[in-house]
Amino acid sequence: MKVLMVGDVAGAPGRRLLMREAERLKSEGAVDLIVANVENAAGGKGLTPPLADTLFAAGVDVLTLGDHAWDRRDIIPYLSQEPRLIRPVNFAPGCPGRGCTTLYAGRTRVSVISLIGRVFMNPAYDCPFRAVDAVLSEQADLGTVILVDFHAEATSEKIVMGRYLDGRVSAVVGSHTHVQTSDETVLPGGTAYLTDLGMTGAKDSAIGRDLESVTQMFLTGMPAAFKIAQEGVALEGALVEIRPRTGRATRIRRVRITE
Ligand SMILES: [Fe+2]
Ligand SMILES: [Fe+2]
Questions:
Q1: Environment of ion ligand 2 (residues, CB < 5 A)
Q2: How many angstroms separate the alpha carbon of residue 35 from the centre of ligand 1?
Q3: CATH number of the domain where residue 212 is located
Q4: Which of 68, 151, 176, 178 is catalytic?
Q5: From CA 22, how far away is CA 34, in angstroms rounded?
Q6: pTM here?
Q7: 151 assigned to active site
Q8: What is the pLDDT averaged over residues 68-72?
Q9: Counted domains in the chain
Q10: Smallest Cα–Cα separation from 197: which of 217, 182, 218, 216?
């Protein structure tokens, strides 16, 4: 089976291209499942229920979140009623929503797990390694194919997670930095790995935000309202090929589709 994992969707330009490509790839039968990180889909900050609905309608199967999960509070009730939208499993106990979802892609049962890192990130998050161990050992109904979105800043934490899960899941891909890395590989145990998927949004920008306002923030140290940039839009991510019967990855390719 072919799975498209999509890097952080930044605002309307990223949503438009993701919807166009999801509709095209699904109608051509080029991919079986699409997972997208959408923590920046609503103007760069979080996600709203209507935007989630439009992405699902376009053919995106699972939506993942990250440190921007709570930027739009109207997503909170939606999170508890929509199983296809997940937030990191290692958020503090009691946080709304779930961190793992299981669905069918054709006849293949697929689980998607969202994790968040702790290095240079909010210290309130629980250990992602112990959290994913708990999901893999305690959740009895997981699919044969298991996909992990590790939303983290530090390359070392992501590389170690890939190796830690090698042979236990089908793919570990990183999100959050908005910058695609070139280290895609199938690890010795059959887990596809890429440190960061990149970003789906305007590349002529500061990781999706308008360059002018971000530059002013760096020059003055003062907070600024960041607008979403509009130019040079691209979809970035990875296409992973997986044997449905074993859950082992056979191939991973970086993806960059320009508008
Ligand atoms: Fe993030
Ligand atoms: Fe992001």
A1: 8, 40
A2: 16
A3: 3.60.21.10
A4: 68
A5: 7
A6: 0.98
A7: no
A8: 97
A9: 1
A10: 182
